[in-house]
Amino acid sequence: AGGILGDSSSYVIGYRYGDRFFKNDARIFNLKNYARGRSFFQKHGARAVFFARFLGPISWVTPFFAGVYKLPYPKFLFYNALGVVGGIGQFIIAGYFFGLNYRLILDLLQDYSLYIVLTIVALIGLYYYFKKR
């Protein structure tokens, strides 16, 4: 209920005051991006609200933008409630399985921590290498 109420309040703030953030000379919140966002929410708004719940920090701002771009509230509420149940469910399931096997997981992390760190550093290096090309 807390997730749904929090997202609904963010939606209302975006619905009432969100247009004021967009200015013609702004770097990110400019009118060109506003038009692009409106087009996106007209095509994918309900799905974006649902799937944002599974994408971490994106779930914090999506309800606001759903309000800014005037996604109908009943549609928002339905897909948001489904997303909240699914998003919270994933953490409950992950916590359950981690709780069952936490000793094994901690032992594996301890044994392979060097390899994990090296893999992360290599992936970051590859990302910057391909970004420059």
What is the compact description of this entry?
The protein has helices at residues 2-17, 31-52, 58-68, 73-100, 102-132.
Oligomeric status: single chain
**First-to-last CA distance:** 47 Å
SSE sequence, one letter per element: HHHHH
Instruction: Please state the CA-atom Rg, rounded to the nearest Å.
Output: 20 Å
What characteristic shape results from the CA principal axes? flat
Structural class: mainly alpha
Helix % is over 70%
The counted number of beta strands is 0
Task: Give a quick account of the main beta sheet: strands, pairing sense, barrel closure.
Answer: none
Unreliable residue stretches: none
Q: What is the helix tally?
A: 5
Write a concise keyword list for the protein shown above.
single chain, about 130 residues, mainly alpha, about 0% strand
Question: Could you please describe the fold and organization of this structure?
Answer:
It is a single chain. The protein is mostly helical and about 130 residues long. The chain contains 5 helices and no strands.
Topology record:
Elements: H1 2-17, H2 31-52, H3 58-68, H4 73-100, H5 102-132
Helix pairs in contact: 1-3, 1-4, 2-3, 2-4
